[in-house]
Amino acid sequence: MVSTLDQIFVLLKHWIVSLLPAVLQPVTGVVLSVVAIICVFPALFAISVLLERKGLGRMQNRIGPNRVGPLGILQPVADGIKSLTKEDIVPTNADAVVHFMAPVFLVVVVFMGYAVLPMGRNMTLVKMDAALLFYFAMGASTELAVFMAGWSSRNKYSLLGAMRAVAQMISYEVPLLLSSVSVVMITGSLSLDKIVEAQNRYTWGLPHWYIFTPWGCAAFVMFAIAATAETNRSPFDLPEGESELVAGYFTEYSGFKFAEFFLGEYVGMLSISGLGTTLFLGGWSAPLEVLGFVPSWIWFFSKVMLSICVMIWMRGTLPRLRQDQLMNFAWKFVLPFTLLILVDVVVWRFMGEGWLRWIVCSAILLIAYVGIGRSEMLRKKIGPRNYRYAE
Amino acid sequence: MTIVFWILSFLTVLGGLAAVTLRNTVHCALAVAVAFAGLALLYLQLDAQFAGFAQILIYIGAVAILVVFAILLTRGSDTPTDGIFSRTWFAGTAIAAAVFAVLGWAVIQSVHALPHETAAPAVTVNQIGNALLGRYVLPLEIVALLLTAALVGAVMVAMHEKGESK
Amino acid sequence: MTALGGYLLVAALVFAIGLGGALTRRNAILVLIGIELMLNAANLNLIAFWRYGPHPEALTGMMFAVFSIAVAAAEAAVGLGLVISIYRHTRTTDLDEMNRMKG
Question: Where are the beta strands (DSSP E) in A194-314?
Answer without folding.
Answer: 202-203, 206-207
